[in-house]
Write a structure and sequence with these properties.
about 325 residues; mainly alpha; Serine Threonine Protein Phosphatase 5, Tetratricopeptide repeat
Length: about 325
């Protein structure tokens, strides 16, 4: 009886923690550049060009809800670190060139990469580790590749991506710079430009990103990164042009407005949201933000009009609201 009661108490405790986690799921802090995340949330590509498919973050609410269960499992000895990605330290990075690693052939088998392997073999192993999100191992393989062949531009570039994933911004920038010195292609110029942007060197970022855009005039990621850098320099019209080249006039206006809103320039943000609305009257993103911004600046009649238009655009009914 006591055992059953204890089990019931533990289960109740777990469910309580899980419920609390569900309510707080919306407060999860996402990793990455905040400006790039704003664009990505609206479906625009931004940030570093990765020679790998996007690694899905999965269902964030589900992860939060299941976290207490995983924690309790570890508490009772069920957890282990096998196959778990751990954050790399600077000391780890210094040791990586001499660490033995394996190459992923598929999801189930591994082929050893020996000291006799070529730089290209280590490059491909590093690429596969990036594909699988094994960033520590990717750094090890790619570090070995560039030590064997310092002129292997692709290895420097991917090493920069791996360092960026591990949070080593300066190391990432250095690797991208080495890649660009060897060979200027659109991807490495974009990665270097975005690294400079993240370091606050916006003028240098614009220079590299403009060069990347010349090599790849229709690359959405490059153009959006260029737009972000222009925004940080206060060159709003140039930013709008870059965003528009990336994904069209409606998205260009929306992305410009979002950035202006982030900077606290509410009147200017309204102007770009209205421009998006003129091009696409039922655009719910523009209408939602206009309703909020008009209310924030004291233009209540325009706020209510935008709310009504939003309700009609969303479900064909008129929403009656009071205040906010």
């Amino acid at each position: 009886m006591k055992k059953r009661r204890l089990i019931a108490v533990v289960i109740a405790f777990i469910l309580t923690i899980a419920a609390t986690a569900m309510w707080s799921a919306s407060t999860i802090v996402r990793e990455g550049d905040p400006d790039a995340i704003v664009l990505e949330d609206s479906g625009s590509e931004a940030g570093t060009s990765e020679d790998q498919p996007k690694k899905s973050g999965g269902n964030k609410v589900l992860k939060v809800v299941t976290a207490p269960f995983r924690a309790v499992g570890r508490l009772f000895g069920g957890g282990n670190k096998e196959n778990k990605i751990e954050r790399m330290t600077e000391k780890d990075a210094e040791r990586f060139q001499s660490v033995g690693v394996t190459r992923i052939e598929d999801a189930r088998s591994f082929k050893p990469v020996t000291s006799a392997s070529t730089a290209r073999e280590h490059l491909e192993a590093g690429r596969q580790f990036l594909l699988n999100g094994a960033y520590n191992e990717a750094v090890s393989e790619l570090s070995t590749a560039v030590s064997l062949d310092p002129k292997l531009s692709e290895a420097h570039n991917l090493l920069g991506v791996a360092y960026d994933k591990k949070g080593f911004g300066e190391r990432a920038k250095d690797s991208f710079e080495k890649a660009v010195k060897i060979e200027e292609d659109a991807e490495t110029l974009n990665n270097l430009g975005f690294a400079l942007y993240q370091n606050g060197n916006y003028r240098a970022a614009v220079d590299r990103l403009k060069r990347a855009a010349k090599l790849a005039p229709t690359d959405e990621r490059i153009l959006n990164n260029l737009g972000l850098a222009y925004c940080r320099l206060g060159k709003v019209e140039e930013a709008y042009k870059a965003f528009t080249r990336a994904a069209g006039a409606v998205t260009g206006n929306l992305n410009t407005a979002k950035m202006l809103e982030r900077f606290g320039r509410e009147d200017d943000a309204i102007r770009y949201y209205e421009a998006a609305r003129q091009l696409e009257p039922n655009n719910t993103i523009a209408l939602r933000r206009l309703a909020d911004l008009y209310n924030r600046v004291g233009r209540t009649a325009e706020s209510q009009e935008a709310r009504t238009a939003l309700a009609i655009a969303s479900n064909g009914t008129i929403l009656v609201t009071g205040g906010k």
